[in-house]
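Hi, here's the filled form for the chain we discussed.

Project: internal
Contact: R.S.
Residues: 490
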Amino acid sequence: MKKVLNYLTPALCVLALAFSVAAFSRGCTTGQGILSTPAGQPVDLTYAAEKALPSVVHIKYLQNSRIQTVEVQSDPFEDFFNDPFGGFFGRGQGNNGTQQRRIQTPRREATGSGVIISTDGYIVTNNHVVAGADELTVTLNDNREFSARIIGTDETTDLALIKIDAKRLPAITIANSEDLKIGEWVLAVGNPLGLNNTVTAGIVSAKARRFGVNGVESFIQTDAAINAGNSGGALVNTRGELVGINAMLYSQTGSYSGYGFAIPTTIMNKVVADLKQYGTVQRAFIGIQGQDVKDYVDKMKARGEDVDLGTMEGIYVGKVVEGGAADAAGIEPGDVIIGADGQKVTKFAELQEIVAKKRPGDKMTITYLHNKKKKQETVTLKNEQGNTRVVQTRDIDILGGNFREITDKQKQELHISYGLEVIKVDNGKLKNAGVNKGFIIQRVNDESIKSIEDLQKAVHKASTGNEPVLYIQGIYPTGKKAYYAISLEE
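And the returned structure, exactly as it came back:
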């Protein structure tokens, strides 16, 4: 039994894969273009490597040292000698014998790769390459360095868009990853193990792979060698065109052992367009939960039950979300989806890749089997909030307040170990909800709030989730506890 994929996290200097490639299109170049190689002849990849290398960049990640509050197990003897009455009055004690302590995290550095997709400085990489960074430095193939800023990130697909202030950059040509064939040669170019501008070659081993690591997955599988530092790089075809952004590897050891996985350009293009236009991905949903038909049939067989769905390919619908697109179209649990927008669908990852290109409000034709009989319906896709409106990313500015972490004195007086004090209330959501100056926010949507960064994350998560509401719990300086529900919708 093989172990789960190891995600490459730059903040932890974990592995990453980056394929910046350029490969010759099964042949040689002439004055009239690229010629195909006769069957049985070796493939020349030098053209692709030469074309793609200038478009792949090295990304250096820096996260500064910071103070964090963590929970540690209490030492009853140390607690007694430091504060013999603490056990009676509960000072400093957390739940289940734990304490809140402030620690200083170390400065963190890591590296990854990225791909230039426009001449004016837009670069695609992995979300895990840039997440949490205080500084990003991009080094081009010609050794020029630039500071980069994050335009937007998408944890669900593990993609990020960053930008440097530069002109006339060597942008890569983007191909349609749907045109890739199993067995086709591809190149990976990146910065593995501290070795800049490295190219490896392999073939497309499989398409539409899904592992449950990200929310949206339809990976291109390749056997081109990848290692730490490759994350966010380019997977390219033999014409030196981008077909994928590499994001993970399959390994039992933490280093290359046979396979890597890339996010196809069909998904990347939609994510990049949304991040540019909206700041967040406008994700569409059919409104079903299900699994590959083969997996469902195998599970039933293991229980001793025979199942005949009329096919062994497609997606078994296990649940239909009430009020969702599938529900409105009449799709029911037990149905089997076998096609979408005229394309044959044999597994869940293929459907995810098709839907990932859509936005809420778009229509899609679904072909499915109901009691083994083929049907077709046109569905209107919705967002996670159950409507077709544009989802807006919010930040703490919408609250209309200023905040600061509570002091040690406040902790002692109120017998609390963390919180964020509202030091000013302007026009905004806080004022509308009746929150007053001095209120100490402790929890938002069941998440502990210990810093302004925690509050920002909570606001962002709620604003793009299926329920754009902040449920805030806290305490006033008088000791009075209070609860507020704040809608983030306009």
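Let me know if anything looks off before we file it.
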